[in-house]
Amino acid sequence: MARLDATAFELPVDRIREGWYTDAYFNHAKAVLEGEDLHPCVLMQVFQRHEAMLGGIDEAIALLRLCSGARRPDGAWEPGWERLEVRALAEGDGIEPQETVLTIEGDYSLFAHLETAYLGALARRTLVVKNTAEVVAAAAGKPVLHFGARHDHLLVQPGDGYAAHLAGAAAVTTDAQGSLWGGRGIGTVPHALIAALGGDTVAAARAFARRFAGSIDITVLVDFDNDSVGTAVAVADALGGDLAGVRLDTSGSLVDRALADQPGPRSERAGVTPELVRRVRAGLDDAGHARVRIVVSGGFDAERIRAFEATGAPVDAYGVGSALRRGENDFTADVVKLDGRPCSKAGREERPNERLRPVD
User: Fold this and answer.
1) How far apart are the first and last CA of the chain?
2) pTM of the entire structure?
3) Beta carbons of 29 and 56 less than 8 angstroms apart
């Protein structure tokens, strides 16, 4: 896989160069080295502690390529990339605990201020890749839609969207999430539009179809009235061939009208359940709409998807949001050599990795 161009990330280069995003002690370290005219040649080694898929490595390299260097006395920035030797794994590579994923060799004063930034990029993106890969595996070939945009700050969207795409997510919901790989955001007729048109899902679906039929696949949320079967059939009848799918997103505090007669504890009937999906599927099929797909969302993670798949629920696609950013996958960087000789914190000795490849 070709590495992403460094400029694709639209990094705030000037701020990064000045240490705005850097833990202060790294800025202080850089200032000491520059003030004393010291230029130690170090080998920096980066690793993490889990079995995972690597994400964010191209972003980390972009930070080094664009932001390593030093400010000259006249105020001009003198780039440092050409004086560094960088070796790295690739986006999407499987990685083992403690495996070295990146090394940086050269004058430490040129990149001391970037450790916070490149470790953060690796930690965030690898977490999204790992979580998405787990969800995609649980879905057993059914599309997983990345619904994570609303659960985090807008500025993380491009990198997170690329990480999810790398791990097999079928689609994202914002153009920003697709910007690094040429994708576009997809979505449904939202609850807010339904409410804005008087709570009439059919009216909202018709208005949506008048504007977008033929240009995008139309999928409609059908739980506004807590009657997913009735609403799904009504929307399918109204839109006919313009309807691609319906989406179930019933609140976990509600029991859909279709399940009012189902025995068992309320907790087992609330929200989107396999039985609700089966009843919506049966309702659509009986009404002659077998081609309409069913998307489910609302609190899905890998464990819940596996449970749905184990029951044979007729789900066509899963929308997954906040589960894709939960947990941690932190990275650590250590100096392991100084001027070609071993020099490291106890327990953090050099771990060579023959899988690393030079970065031009």
Assistant:
1) 14
2) 0.93
3) no
